[in-house]
Design goal:
The chain has 153 residues and is α+β, with helices and mostly antiparallel strands. It folds into two domains: 59 residues, no CATH class; 68 residues, no CATH class. It has six helices and four strands. The strands form two sheets. Strands 1-2 form a two-stranded antiparallel ribbon. Strand 1 and strand 2 form a beta hairpin. Helix 4 crosses helix 6. It is globular.
Length: 153
């Protein structure tokens, strides 16, 4: 029985990875050099301090380049990238949830929920993270639905 449960977990994990790997690069929030997260180190968010990565410490995953602040973070990412890749292709989680829109983000405005990284739009006049927090679980579900509609095209 334990082997069966393990096999199911492996298949579910593989299926989840395969779906992410099939996302066309055109749907992701990347700069002109195909760098994700505006050059920020995705692992650093989980240490409660988003840090700008160094172009000299990078890793390419599915044609997307990620920068890291140090080799330790790069190695963590290489071992389990699914944990660190931002949700909704790195677009604003609130805009994706509310309107199914790809909106730029401020890489310093983020939230980690259930081990997932969500990035948000933020400007001098407007911040959506407070609205997100008010109804987070519902918005995550809506965002997943809208994101899946975008990437299946």
């Amino acid at each position: 029985m334990n082997k069966l449960i393990f096999s199911i977990l492996v298949l579910v994990s593989f299926d989840s990875y395969a779906q992410k790997a099939n996302v066309s690069i055109e749907h992701l929030n990347l700069n002109k050099k195909d760098v994700a997260v505006n050059g920020y180190d995705p692992v650093s968010y989980f240490d409660k301090q988003p840090l700008k990565g160094k172009s000299s410490i990078n890793f390419k995953l599915d044609d997307v380049i990620y920068y890291f602040e140090n080799e330790i973070n790069k190695n963590k990412f290489m071992k389990s990238s699914d944990k660190f890749v931002p949700q909704f292709g790195g677009w604003c989680a609130y805009a994706m949830s509310m309107r199914g829109e790809k909106m730029e983000v401020d890489p310093k405005t983020y939230k980690i929920t259930n081990g997932k990284l969500y990035l948000f739009y933020d400007s001098f006049f407007s911040s959506v993270i407070d609205d997100w927090i008010d109804d987070e679980l519902v918005l995550i579900d809506k965002g997943n639905q809208n994101w899946n509609n975008i990437i299946k095209d």
